[in-house]
């Protein structure tokens, strides 16, 4: 306000000083007209709209944009993958029991190899010790491949994106069966890698394990205890049912491997175990997300 008054006063003084040099009735010259023109033209400035009033652009990282484009998989697809876990658990149990029958080694859970490896190394049986540690390494590599397959979307990875890993695991199981039929001991590494791939996928997609039962039994006990001491919500009841099915399927696989090995070679049992895995992978490859 004070600056505006000062500007008006300067303009008035300028106009009066110029008028003193013009006689009455005389038209001012062009130079005088320019001189009498105000030095400062006041005008009401147009204020820019407030930044707060403007809609702020929504900033998203590339990862968030990609995740939004893919979106979470449907509840039906999640449930379908749980049912697939039953079949994958049966296949892994068949192979694990078959290798135990022929080679006296397990390949689908790492408690045995992780115990025997250091024990054999400490007792001077270096070859057997390193073999067990190699089985652990092969299983770890399989889990790494499963991690790569689900790296972008984790548990919301589309079914079709998991299919190549399932097919690869099935092919590895088939190859390990052929090797076992020819008594190639390194078939255990191939089978362990396949087991790691399948167990890694189901762990990420469903939280269930399909290559061992330690976690399964632990969760079963926890849920049963909760049900006795309190109440189980419908989702937990469903989880307990799934765990019981997985436990039962693992038992069935062990018995079936023994009965089948009495009629055919262990390698043949392992190759047949790869068939349902390959079929699931092909089904997933053509699944509409």
What do these coordinates show?
This protein has eleven helices and no strands. With 289 residues, it is mainly alpha-helical. α4 (75-103) runs antiparallel to α8 (187-206), α7 runs antiparallel to α8 and α9 packs antiparallel against α10 (234-261). The chain is globular and about 50 Å long.
Features:
289 residues; globular; mainly alpha; 11 helices
Describe this structure in a few short sentences.
By secondary structure, this protein is an all-alpha fold. It has helices spanning 2-19, 30-36, 62-70, 75-103, 111-123, 126-149, 159-181, 187-206, 214-229, 234-261, 266-285. Helix content is 72%, strand content 0%.
List the helices and strands and how they pair.
Elements: H1 2-19, H2 30-36, H3 62-70, H4 75-103, H5 111-123, H6 126-149, H7 159-181, H8 187-206, H9 214-229, H10 234-261, H11 266-285
Helix pairs in contact: 4-8, 4-10, 4-11, 5-6, 6-8, 7-8, 7-11, 9-10
């Amino acid at each position: 306000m004070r600056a505006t008054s000062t500007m008006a006063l300067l303009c008035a003084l300028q106009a009066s000083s110029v008028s003193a040099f013009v006689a009455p009735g005389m038209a001012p010259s062009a130079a005088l007209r320019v001189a009498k023109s105000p030095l400062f033209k006041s005008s009401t400035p147009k204020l820019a709209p407030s930044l707060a009033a403007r809609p702020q652009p929504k900033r998203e990282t590339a990862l968030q944009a990609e995740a939004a484009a893919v979106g979470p998989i449907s509840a039906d697809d999640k449930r379908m993958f749980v049912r697939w876990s039953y079949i994958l658990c049966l296949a892994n149990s068949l192979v694990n029991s078959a290798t135990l029958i022929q080679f006296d080694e397990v390949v689908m859970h790492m408690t045995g190899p992780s115990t025997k490896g250091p024990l054999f190394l400490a007792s001077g049986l270096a070859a057997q010790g390193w073999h067990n540690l190699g089985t652990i390494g092969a299983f770890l590599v399989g889990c790494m491949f499963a991690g790569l397959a689900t790296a972008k979307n984790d548990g919301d990875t589309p079914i079709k994106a998991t299919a190549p890993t399932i097919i690869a695991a099935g092919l590895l199981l088939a190859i390990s069966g052929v090797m076992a039929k020819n008594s190639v001991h390194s078939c255990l590494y191939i089978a362990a890698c396949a087991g790691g791939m399948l167990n890694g996928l189901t762990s990420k997609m469903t939280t269930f394990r399909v290559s061992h039962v330690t976690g399964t039994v632990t969760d079963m006990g926890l849920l049963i205890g909760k049900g006795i001491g309190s109440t189980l919500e419908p989702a937990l009841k469903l989880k307990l049912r799934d765990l019981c099915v997985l436990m039962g399927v693992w038992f069935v696989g062990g018995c079936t491997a023994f009965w089948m090995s009495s009629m055919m070679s262990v390698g043949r049992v392992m190759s047949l175990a790869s068939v349902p895995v390959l079929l699931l992978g092909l089904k997933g490859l053509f699944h509409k997300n």
